[in-house]
Recover the amino acids of this structure.
RNA sequence: GGCGGUAUCGUCUAGGGGACUAGGACGGAGCCCUCUCAAGGCUCAAACACGGGUUCGAAUCCCGUUACCGCUACCA
C-alpha cells in the first residue's frame, strides 16, 4: 500500500529511437511541473529494450532537449534494458503463482489464426488453447526444449480506474486478450517491463499520453498479480498537426531541437507547450517556469488533443523576448551572432555595454533570436546587403536620394554630441529647410544605414551605430546608388 | 470490425445548471500612435457537432447519433 503522504514520484520514459519530440517534451513538462510543485521526484527512464531501434545518439539528443528546456531530473537515469533479470523474475513469479501460463503457439500459427478470424469478419482474441494443455503435456514440451512465450491470464470481471484527467474508465476483461509478457527469447514485452520498472522505481503517478489508455487495464492487472497496488494514472491528450492528425514530420518541425535552432527561447517553448492541454484557468497566458510550477494542477488538464500552431508559438516567443532583460538574452543571442558571422566574441566582449543596449533596442521588435540577428547585423562593421524592396521603395529616384543623403551627411557632420535629441533636432531642421516631410529624410537614410525598411527609431539607430560607421554606411550607399544610376 | 477516448470561434482555451448577448489569446480585417517595423491601445468578423431527455432553466447533467483520434504485435 503506497503511503499517501509520501512525496509523489513521477517519471518520463522515452524510447531512444529519435529526437525529443514536442509531444514527448510536453508530457515530460507536465510530469516535471507536478513533481516540482509537490516536492516529489521527477525520474527519467530510457526504454531501450528494442535494441534494433535504440541508439546512444538518440538518447543524448533527448537529454539535451530536456536540459535545454530546463527540465532537470532527479536521481540516476534508469535504463530499462538493465532490468532484464528482474523482468524475468517477475514473469517467472507470475508463472509460479498461476497468473500466467506458457504458450507454445508460434508466431506463424498466431498469424494464421488472426487471418482466419479476419476472413470470418470476427475480431481476433487468443483462444487460450495452450492454457488448456494437460500438465504432463506442458512438462513434455518444456523438457523437449520447445520454445514458449509467457502469457498473462486475464481474469473474469472488469478493470477500472479513476483517471486523473478522464475520470472513471472501465474495460470489461473479456475484451482484453491473454497478452504475452515474455517473448520466447526470454525478453519482456513492453507492458511487463513498464510495470516491473514502475514498481521498482516507486512511481506513484503515471502521467503519459492518452494513446496508452488501452494498455492501462493490462498494466493494472499486472500490478495486482505482482502483489502491488497500482499507481494513479493521468492520461494527457496528444498533440496533433494542423490537419488534426498525429503530429509528424510532414507538419514541419516536430523536434524541440528544431525550434531551438530557429531561435525560440526555452522559456517560450515551455510556456507554449504547457498551454496545449493545460490551462491555469482564467486568462493567464504568458508565464515563467516558476509561475507555472505554482499554478499547475491536474484538474487544469484538457481531455482533448491540441493542434500545434507555430504562429502562436512565435507570438509567445516575441512576448518572452520583449520581457527578458538584455542580460538574459545575451547568452542566447551571442552564439547566434557568431554563428551567422555577424560578429566575433571579442567584438561583443569589448563593447559589452553597447551590445546590451543594442539588445534592448531590438528585442521588442523581434519574434525569434534569428530575427534579432538579422536586425543586429547592420550595427556591425561588415558590409550590408540592400533589400531590393527597400531600394525600390525608398530610393526609387536615385539622384534625389543621393542629394538627400549628402545633405544628411553635412548635417550630421555638424552634430558634436550624438544623442537622440541632438540628432532629431538636426534632421528635422533639415527636413524643414528642404520643405519635405521628415519621413522623406528618415526612410532613405534608414535604407542607407541598415539596408532594410525595418529598424528601431532612426535616432536610436544613429546613436547605436556611431558617427564612424554611419559615415561609412553613407559612403557605401553613394557607391551603390551611383553604380545603379550608371 | 471490436474496444476505448474526445467534441466551445480557423487554432489554443475560459466556463462545472441561472452571472452567457458565451470571455480571453493567436491568426485575420480596420483604426489610433508613428520616421519604418514591432510593441502598445481600441474596434470588427468568428464557436457551444446533431438529436432526444432531466430541469422552472442546460455550453454545463444523462442517453443516443455523427465525426475525429487511439489501441487492437512474441513494437514501445
Amino acid at each position: 500500500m503506497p503511503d499517501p503522504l509520501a512525496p509523489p514520484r513521477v517519471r518520463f520514459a522515452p524510447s531512444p529511437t529519435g529526437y525529443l519530440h514536442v509531444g514527448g517534451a510536453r508530457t515530460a513538462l507536465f510530469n516535471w511541473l507536478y513533481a516540482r510543485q509537490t516536492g516529489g521526484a521527477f525520474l527519467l527512464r530510457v526504454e531501450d529494450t528494442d535494441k534494433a531501434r535504440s541508439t546512444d545518439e538518440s538518447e543524448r539528443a533527448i537529454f539535451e532537449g530536456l536540459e535545454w528546456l530546463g527540465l532537470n531530473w532527479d536521481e540516476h537515469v534508469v535504463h530499462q534494458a538493465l532490468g532484464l533479470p528482474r523482468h524475468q523474475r517477475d514473469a517467472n513469479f507470475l508463472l509460479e503463482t498461476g497468473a500466467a501460463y506458457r504458450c507454445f503457439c508460434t508466431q506463424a500459427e498466431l498469424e494464421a489464426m488472426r487471418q482466419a478470424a479476419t476472413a470470418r469478419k470476427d475480431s481476433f482474441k487468443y483462444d487460450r488453447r495452450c492454457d488448456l494443455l494437460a500438465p504432463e503435456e506442458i512438462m513434455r514440451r518444456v523438457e523437449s526444449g520447445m520454445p514458449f512465450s509467457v502469457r498473462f491470464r486475464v481474469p473474469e470481471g472488469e478493470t477500472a480506474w479513476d483517471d486523473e484527467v478522464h475520470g472513471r474508465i472501465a474495460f470489461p476483461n473479456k475484451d482484453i486478450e491473454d497478452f504475452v509478457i515474455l517473448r520466447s527469447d526470454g525478453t519482456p514485452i513492453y507492458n511487463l517491463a513498464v510495470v516491473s520498472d514502475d514498481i521498482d522505481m516507486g512511481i506513484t503517478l503515471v502521467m503519459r499520453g492518452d494513446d496508452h489508455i488501452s494498455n492501462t487495464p493490462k498494466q493494472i492487472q499486472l500490478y495486482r498479480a505482482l502483489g502491488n497496488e497500482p499507481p494513479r494514472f493521468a492520461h494527457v491528450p496528444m498533440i496533433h498537426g494542423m490537419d488534426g492528425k498525429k503530429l509528424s514530420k510532414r507538419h514541419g518541425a516536430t523536434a524541440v531541437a528544431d525550434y531551438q535552432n530557429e531561435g525560440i527561447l526555452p522559456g517560450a517553448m515551455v510556456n507554449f507547450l504547457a498551454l496545449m492541454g493545460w490551462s491555469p484557468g482564467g486568462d493567464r497566458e504568458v508565464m515563467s517556469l516558476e509561475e507555472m510550477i505554482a499554478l499547475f494542477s491536474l484538474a487544469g488538464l484538457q481531455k482533448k488533443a491540441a493542434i500545434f500552431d507555430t504562429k502562436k508559438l512565435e507570438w509567445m516567443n516575441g512576448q518572452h523576448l520583449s520581457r527578458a532583460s538584455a542580460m538574459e538574452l545575451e547568452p542566447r543571442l551571442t552564439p547566434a551572432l557568431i554563428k551567422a558571422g555577424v560578429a566575433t566574441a571579442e567584438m561583443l566582449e569589448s563593447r559589452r555595454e553597447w551590445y546590451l543596449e543594442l539588445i534592448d533596442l531590438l528585442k521588442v521588435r523581434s519574434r525569434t533570436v534569428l530575427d534579432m540577428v538579422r536586425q543586429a547585423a547592420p550595427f556591425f562593421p561588415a558590409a550590408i546587403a540592400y533589400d531590393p524592396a527597400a531600394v525600390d521603395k525608398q530610393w526609387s529616384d536615385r539622384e534625389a536620394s543621393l542629394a538627400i543623403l549628402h545633405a544628411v551627411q553635412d548635417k550630421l557632420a555638424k552634430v558634436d554630441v550624438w544623442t537622440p535629441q541632438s540628432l532629431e533636432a538636426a534632421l528635422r531642421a533639415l527636413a524643414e529647410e528642404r520643405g519635405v516631410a521628415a519621413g522623406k529624410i528618415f526612410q532613405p537614410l534608414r535604407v542607407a544605414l541598415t539596408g532594410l525598411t525595418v529598424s528601431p527609431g532612426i535616432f536610436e539607430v544613429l546613436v547605436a551605430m556611431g558617427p564612424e560607421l554611419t559615415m561609412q554606411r553613407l559612403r557605401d550607399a553613394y557607391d551603390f546608388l551611383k553604380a545603379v544610376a550608371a
Observations:
- The mean pLDDT of chain A is 93.
